[in-house]
């Protein structure tokens, strides 16, 4: 089966590599020459542009940074009119649920199928092929592309109709953000008590305080090195989408998330922090705010 993969950043590149390792023929056209070179060594076919990619593809995967880019790349550009007849589109971007439904409507009108299938797990699980995938769409389309999803994820859940995948992802992002904040406060307390951070981690990571967030983000916080597995600016985008998807009275009932979002937003006044891992939230505590 020929797969076109559009969006080959921190997450998309290893996801694409796992499809190639599983024997799929994958067509790409990244603006980053190094990405094209790396994936071509894994067996990807590099083409001149996205139009050439979709014309070669039986299935298209999207892994784009935000709602506006999905709309721009697929709909506003007219790229969807170049798809082969009846092409399933797996949109793994983390976007607004409303955008998922809008894009689905456009594609359905042209005879294509669409599922929103955002992921969780960060770069590490993208490399391992063990992402959690939240898939919204009809059962027939999800069943058709399930073998593809299984190359990239270990936990794949059909969440409901189109849009529900990204709605569940917003819930995920609220919980992850607040977990990072809680971990940051624990580390700040440990430092104030003059405790060795590695010893603290060894002591508590196997108990109720332990979590995937602790395992993946503690080393970055302890070292003060925030190479991105998931960028701060993208997490704030997701929190903005979450708040934009509900009424004001719901937002008022989320005081912890409001505070976490405010801290992240403040830190992003520094353009460098925008590109750092979301665990750089610890900078708020590390600087004694």
From TrEMBL:
GO terms for molecular function: NAD binding; NADP binding; phosphogluconate dehydrogenase (decarboxylating) activity. Keywords: NAD, Oxidoreductase. Pfam families: NAD_binding_11, NAD_binding_2. Residues 163-285 form the 3-hydroxyisobutyrate dehydrogenase-like NAD-binding domain. Its EC number is 1.1.1.44. The active site is at residue 169. It comes from the Bacteria. SUPFAM superfamilies: 6-phosphogluconate dehydrogenase C-terminal domain-like, NAD(P)-binding Rossmann-fold domains. Coiled coil: none annotated. Gene3D superfamilies: N-(1-d-carboxylethyl)-l-norvaline Dehydrogenase, domain 2, NAD(P)-binding Rossmann-like Domain. Belongs to the HIBADH-related family. PANTHER family: 2-HYDROXY-3-OXOPROPIONATE REDUCTASE, 3-HYDROXYISOBUTYRATE DEHYDROGENASE-LIKE 1, MITOCHONDRIAL-RELATED. This is 6-phosphogluconate dehydrogenase, decarboxylating.
């Amino acid at each position: 089966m020929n797969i076109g993969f559009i969006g080959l950043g921190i997450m998309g590149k290893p996801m694409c590599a796992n499809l190639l390792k599983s024997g799929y023929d994958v067509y790409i056209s990244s603006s980053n020459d190094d990405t094209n070179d790396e994936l071509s060594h894994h067996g990807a076919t590099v083409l001149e542009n996205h139009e050439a990619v979709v014309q070669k593809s039986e299935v298209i995967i999207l892994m784009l940074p935000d709602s506006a880019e999905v709309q721009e790349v697929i709909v506003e550009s007219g790229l969807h009119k170049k798809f082969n007849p009846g092409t399933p589109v797996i949109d793994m971007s983390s976007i607004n649920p409303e955008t998922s439904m809008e894009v689905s409507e456009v594609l359905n009108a042209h005879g294509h199928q669409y599922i929103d299938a955002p992921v969780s797990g960060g770069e590490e699980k993208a490399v391992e092929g063990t992402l959690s995938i939240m898939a919204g769409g009809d059962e027939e389309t999800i069943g058709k592309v399930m073998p593809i999803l299984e190359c990239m994820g270990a936990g794949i859940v059909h969440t409901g109709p189109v849009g529900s995948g990204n709605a569940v992802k917003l819930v995920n992002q609220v919980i992850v953000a607040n977990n990072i904040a809680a971990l940051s406060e624990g580390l700040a307390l440990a430092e104030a008590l003059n405790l060795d951070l590695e010893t603290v981690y060894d002591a508590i990571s196997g108990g109720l305080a332990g979590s995937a967030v602790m395992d993946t983000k503690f080393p970055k916080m302890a070292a003060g090195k925030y190479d991105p597995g998931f960028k701060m600016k993208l997490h704030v985008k997701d929190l903005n989408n979450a708040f934009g998807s509900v009424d004001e009275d719901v937002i008022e009932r989320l005081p912890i998330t409001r505070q976490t979002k405010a801290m992240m937003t403040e830190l992003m006044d520094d353009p460098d922090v925008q590109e750092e891992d979301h665990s750089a939230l610890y900078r708020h505590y590390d600087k004694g705010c």
